[in-house]
Amino acid sequence: MPKHGKKYRIAAEKVDPLKQYPPAEGVKLVKETAFAGFDESVELHIRTGLDPRHAIQSMRLLSEIARGGTLVIASLHDLTLAARYPDRFIILVDGAVMADEQTLTAELIHRAFGVSAVLTGTGDSRSFTLLSPVDK
Q: 86, 82, 85: which is closest to 113 by C-alpha?
């Protein structure tokens, strides 16, 4: 078993590895336990599929973190959330980069996923309605 230093042990005592922390509490905990002298990367796993309110709160929190200068990389499968928040889209199809774009568009969704989509709304109210699948 590897031996950890004092700072690591102090930080580890603050974290319950079995607990699922709410996003704001998790970010606060990350900041409290950070001890590196440089900007550390943070990996977050946020479940957004079942609770729309939680999903929007989580994405707003990630946007706030990004505005603070921290790189945020999120893997999203919800096209509505993807349409509203990110500044850049890297679309993977069969494990390969299919597109690297600044804006998620109906045409990009069609090329990537073979479905027609209609965009409605603007800003943080953007949403896609998916239509029937078509041949790629």
A: 82
Q: If 0-12 CB within 10 Å is exposed, 13-18 middle and 19+ buried, where does residue 136 land?
A: exposed
**Cα four-point dihedral sign 112, 117, 123, 125:** negative
Report the candidate in 64, 63, 101 with the shortest Cα–Cα distance to residue 81: 63
Q: What is the pLDDT along the chain (136 residues), one digit of tens a residue?
A: 568 788 888 888 888 888 888 877 877 887 788 776 656 666 666 666 667 888 888 888 888 888 888 888 888 888 888 888 888 889 988 888 999 999 889 999 999 988 999 989 887 788 888 887 765 4
Helices (H) and strands (E) in the chain, counts: 5, 4
pTM of the predicted protein model: 0.60
CA 42 to each of CA 30, 53, 63, 84, 113: distance values in angstroms, whole numbers, following the listed order: 8, 23, 14, 22, 29
Terminal CA-CA length for the chain: 51
Q: Which residues contact 54 (CB under 8 A, 6 or more apart)?
A: 47, 48
**For the chain, domain boundaries:** 1-74, 77-136
